[in-house]
Amino acid sequence: MASNWAEKFYEMQYRSLKQEGELTVYEMDLAKSLKEQVGRPLGNVLELGAWDGRLARILADDADTITTVELIPEMVEVAKAHSAPNITPLCGDFYDIKIDSTFDTILYMDGFGVGEDEDQRTLLERIGSWLNDNGTALIDIYNPTHWIKADGQSMCPNPVDHPEVIRRYDYDYDNNRMIDTWWHADEPENTLSQYLKCYTTEQIYTLCQAAGLDVIGYFPNGAMDYNAWQYSDNASLEECLSYRIKVRRH
To answer: Among 97, 139, 183, 212, which lies 20 to 30 A Cα-Cα from 152?
Structure first.
């Protein structure tokens, strides 16, 4: 179920930021927190929405194997060029790709919410089918409380290296979606947007239950104060821009 906007948007986003496989402090800190939240050896890992494989490369020494899935061919080629021997990068859509293995750990960072509730349930069911009996998945969920506050805010995602790239946040109240629109300053008429459903903790718990998954942990991420234009790494579960759920099969 590749969305009609996803491939063009993520390809543009990747090219605009021109990161091309480099590892950042953000990924280093993310890897550390993920290992703490899993709370046991990673074992065999499946990462969904793996970008160009940078997180997998950081985790490679802590995992037996890592299989990454990414929609954008350009990113998959970068991942293959930089992969460790125990990493297998795959190109495909989460809803169509055929994966016969099961995994100890599944990771889906910063991307859940493409499509409608039925699509999220289908993906959660697929995640459950890829988990082994004792496996757990960590999934980032966008928090509606934060994104309602972000409605109408504009900024440069990387003002130092790419001041020409601008983004604006909007909130679709009818469909409970955050809308993230990007453009270049010299081409304001050429915009691309991503649309991600937002869920309260109660809503995602219900959705996971319907998909045969138990939520066994909630981990809040940071939050942006749009009055002070300051980001904080520490935020409550109610105020964070996204939170991470830890799930296992019923």
So the answer is: 139
Burial of 158 from C-beta contacts in 10 A (0-12 / 13-18 / 19+)? middle
User: Does pTM top 0.85 for this prediction?
Assistant: yes
Q: Which domains does the chain have, with CATH numbers?
A: 6-142+199-249 (3.40.50.150), 147-193 (no CATH)
Non-local CB neighbours of 209 within 8 Å, separated by 6+ positions: none
How many angstroms separate the CA atoms of 192 and 189, rounded? 10
Q: Tell me the H-state helices in 60-189.
A: 73-82, 117-130, 144-149
Distance in angstroms (rounded) separating the CA atoms of residues 178 and 168: 10
Contacts of 115 (CB under 8 A, 6+ apart): 1, 3, 197
Ramachandran angles phi, psi of 134, nearest 5°: -110, 15
Check residue 19 and give its pLDDT.
66
